[in-house]
Amino acid sequence: MSTSPNECQSRLNAHLTIKEAQAIFGLSAPVSFHFDQAQFVGVVGSNGAGKSSLLRLFCGLNHTKGEILISDVSLKYLTHLDRAQRIAYLPQSPPLSPHWTVEEVLKQGLYPHLHSSHLETVERELSELSDRLHLTPLLKREIAYISGGERQRTLIARTLAQSTPIMILDEPLSALDWHTQEIIIRELKYLCEQRQTLIIASIHELNLASLYTDELIMLRDGDVINTGPTTQMMTEEHINHTFMSQVRALEHPTDHRYQQLPWGIQR
Amino acid sequence: MSLREHTQHKRMKPIPIGEQSPHVKLKTYGLFALGLYVSFGLFVSRELTWFECWDALIGGPNHTHPNQVIMWWVKVPQLLTALIAGGILSMSGAAMQNLMRNDLADPYLIGVAAGGGLGAALSITFGLIDSLGIGALPFCSFLGALSASLWIDYLSRTQSTQSLMSNPAHLVLAGVALNLFLSALLTLTLSLSDDQLSNIWRWLIGHIHILSWYELTLLTVISLITIKLLHSQNRGLELMCGGEEVAWSLGVNIWRVRRLTLIAVSLGVGTVVAFCGIIGFVGLLVPHFIRPRISGASDRLLSLSLLYGGLVLGGCHLLSILMPIALPIGVITGVIGGSIFLMTMTYSTRMMS
User: Fold this and answer.
1) pTM of the entire structure?
2) With an 8 Å Cβ cutoff, are B246 and A84 in contact?
3) Which of residues 140-169 of B touch A (CB under 8 A)?
4) What is the CATH classification number for the domain harbouring A127?
């Protein structure tokens, strides 16, 4: 595999365009989006609203009509390895063999780069990443002997190890305690800001979503009902419309740009 | 970044010198056992003494002495057949288990072997061997096995609910149903062909037959193709264990992996079934024995299964020639393999609790 300067560039940043794509499953109408590099996009909605279907559609697993373009190149013209160097996808709870060690799982993320010249760079990044996510002490541990939260961290680390310019994560924060959630979402934010990565993640924790994401996609019953900058989306009206709930949005005490939402029914 | 930092980060965690990782140990033991097996196989015999064996071996493959005929036309081919058949069966079992992400998957359980058996039985019944030569048997068997595995692949795909991925649970369910169906057809063929009944029966129960060198060459060549094909899909098969969507996302061409694996398994298992009949348990047990013992090196699963499968079947073959009565090898693998496996399971369950 050759690495022209052009390819290095596309390894580092890319933008994603979805043109009138119809989902096979889970979404009622065709959707169109454009995401630029270095964006953190949150997908919110209640259970069964179609978050996973939308994310699978974004990475090309769930569309019949329409087109999905990465940096203006259609997904169907990319080879499997080229695609895997550009877009990474973490499903909701993928199976892991109980006999794998954490280190092995992390190294699986290097698979798309195994025969490329930047393998050493990616490997080095992975060892730094496992330090940042506090996985280094667990490296020799077998999957059968780690906790659910550690498992989730391992899965996220494997996806991040692909070091792709576009990452699509389905509920990366589930099964994690609040502190680890903070670590993970800061890591995502860091990738977004420092490495120009485009991150699209479904997030249940609205407070975290409002603090960290740049854009929000709101889903209800298989329909995209609202998209826009997080600051404009995180209003009582939008949230109550999406979740059919009754909440009050309060201003964050120190960070005036965002809003904090306590989950109490307020009339 | 300084050079020192660079080299520090080069590999994630270096293995300390002097400490051997488990898969290397397992490989060493395996090769040692292989040496033992070959020497035992060549020199232990009910008819000949050690010295006669040695003389016959040194004498080379010619007909000058009856002992040489026994050595070169009976013992050596049987030894090799047992090694190859066991290796292919357990390697295919390991590949199927990874592909279907199910511990129960095994060429015998999901009907690939029954398909091969049916193909071979039909070729015997219709006398294809007499008209087309010995090559017709593995060919028909391969066709039977291949159509069985393609059928399973097709069933699993049409049954899957979500877009392009297949559902491993459906794959196994389809396989088990297919196995029952094909086994019934096999029995039907058997009961309809009275004159060939003993022929087919003798062949069906699983036996390391004395193959001619021509047949052995055929078996070896096809097995090498199978091993090569499965080995080329090694990484893909390993990643398939973590779910098809993840493997796809990591850049594995999952359709190619699935297709090539099914073809390779049908080719290998079809041929083994054609020459040795239906030998159960090896393909199921050996990968289960290997898997927990190579944590940290899952990419060695296929090659170690190949080695240990050969050893297990070879060992059973040695036992069967030392037994006072001629027992079919399928019975020995079943009895010994099954009891050891059940014992290990009981032991490890007790350890857990």
Assistant:
1) 0.86
2) no
3) 161-165
4) 3.40.50.300
> pLDDT digit of tens for each residue in chain A (267 aa)?
444 444 455 566 789 999 998 888 788 899 999 999 999 999 999 998 999 999 999 988 888 888 999 998 998 899 999 999 999 999 988 889 888 999 999 999 999 999 888 888 899 999 999 999 999 999 989 998 999 889 999 999 999 999 999 999 999 998 888 888 988 999 999 999 988 999 999 998 888 888 889 999 999 999 999 999 988 888 888 888 888 887 777 777 666 555 555 444 333
Cα–Cα dist B305/B95, whole Å: 10
From chain A, the residues in CB contact with B165 under 8 A are 61
Range of the domain at A25: 5-250
Kindly indicate whether the ipTM for this predicted assembly is greater than 0.90, answering yes or no: no
* Out of B9, B13, B243, closest to residue A94 by CB: B243
Alpha-carbon distance of B67 to B46, in angstroms, equals 12
B292 to A56: CB separation less than 8 angstroms, yes or no: no
User: A28 in helix, strand or coil?
Assistant: coil
B38 three-class SS: helix
Q: Where are the domains of chain B?
A: 48-97+104-341
Instruction: Kindly state the tokens that stand for B209.
Output: 């037959």
Contact criterion met (CB < 8 Å) for A126 and B12: yes
Quickly tell me which residue has 């939308």 as its tokens.
Answer: A54
> Does residue A78 belong to the interface with chain B, where contact is any CB pair within 8 Å?
no
Question: What architecture is the B48-97+104-341 domain classified under in CATH?
Answer: Orthogonal Bundle (1.10)
Is A229 among the domain residues? Answer: yes
CA–CA min distance B257, chain A (Å): 12
Q: Residue B167 in contact with residue B161, Cβ under 8 Å? A: yes
